[in-house]
Amino acid sequence: MSNGRRPLVAGNWKMHGNLQRAAELATAVSRGALPETVDVVVCPPLCHLGAVAGAISATRLQLGAQDVAPWVEDGAYTGEVSSPMLKDAGCGYAIVGHSERRGLLAENDATVAQKFMAAQAGGITPILCVGETLAEREAGKSLDVVGAQLQAVIDAAGISAFTNAVLAYEPVWAIGTGRTAAAGDAQEVHQHLRCLAGESDATIAGSLRILYGGSVKPGNAAELFAQADIDGGLIGGAALQADDFLAIVQAAANT
Ligand code: PEP
Fold it and tell me: Are residues 167 and 209 in contact, defined by beta-carbon separation less than 8 angstroms?
């Protein structure tokens, strides 16, 4: 991490647990040592947002959603939740374009860009995920793939939208697999993403926070976060254990 960017660590709880577990986990994290210098966000399942908001109120922990509707105005969109609704529920962030949604639910770059813009229109900061599959990495296409995913959102939303956004590089082959990108390889991708954004606006690119996600654990967080263009992490599995998540937050504070 460098250049005065404030580190951010976000926990993506995915579709795990029940209401009681969500409240307990949120309470345990919020009672841990949360350094002043790091933004710490938890993203529970939608139906647990209310309980988690209650558990973390009056703490430094912030709330995020795992997804957001691509529409802002109220309407006939069964099953969808808009950014104003998320804001009402206490969210400040929403993950968009997670590889599980791209892969399992066929979300394409156009949908992801729409969600990114819809999040911002409702006052929510999007955490835009990009990442290549194993086949794409092995074919030497990592930089092209993540670059195209980012460029699609820059083209749709404009670079100025990135003054209030977070980017997350999440190699698909590293998510939930226990296989982490080597710190130097992750740095190469992060640098590429920052350079690409910099072609549109160097100042915005310089202050854009780019998180790494993909099997981040207490044991590898420090080395990843020490890289010049890695500004924190998007954490899946390790976010489900308060001690592990807090250790990762501490690693972000120490680098
Ligand atoms: C994720 O869910 O975005 C993620 C990075 O998961 P994990 O940390 O388990 O790889």
Answer: yes
Mutate to test the pocket of ligand 1, among 8, 67, 128, 175 (most ligand atoms within 8 A of CB): 175
> DSSP labels for 147-167?
HHHHHHHHHHH-GGGGGG-EE
CA of 18 to the centre of ligand 1 (A): 19
- Alpha carbon 223 to chain centroid, angstroms: 19
| Count of Cβ atoms closer than 10 Å to residue 251 Cβ | 25
Ligand 1 centroid to residue 215 C-alpha, Å: 6
For residue 74, the CA-to-ligand 1 centroid distance in Å is 31
pLDDT tens-digit profile, the chain (255 residues): 667 899 999 999 999 999 999 999 999 999 998 999 999 999 999 999 999 999 999 999 999 999 999 999 999 999 999 999 999 999 999 999 999 999 999 999 999 999 999 999 999 999 999 999 999 999 999 999 999 999 999 999 999 999 999 999 999 999 999 899 899 999 999 999 999 999 999 999 999 999 999 999 999 999 999 999 999 999 999 999 999 999 999 999 998
Residues with CB under 6 A from ligand 1: 12, 14, 170, 175-176, 213-216, 234-238
Residues 174 and 150: their CA atoms lie apart, in Å, by 19
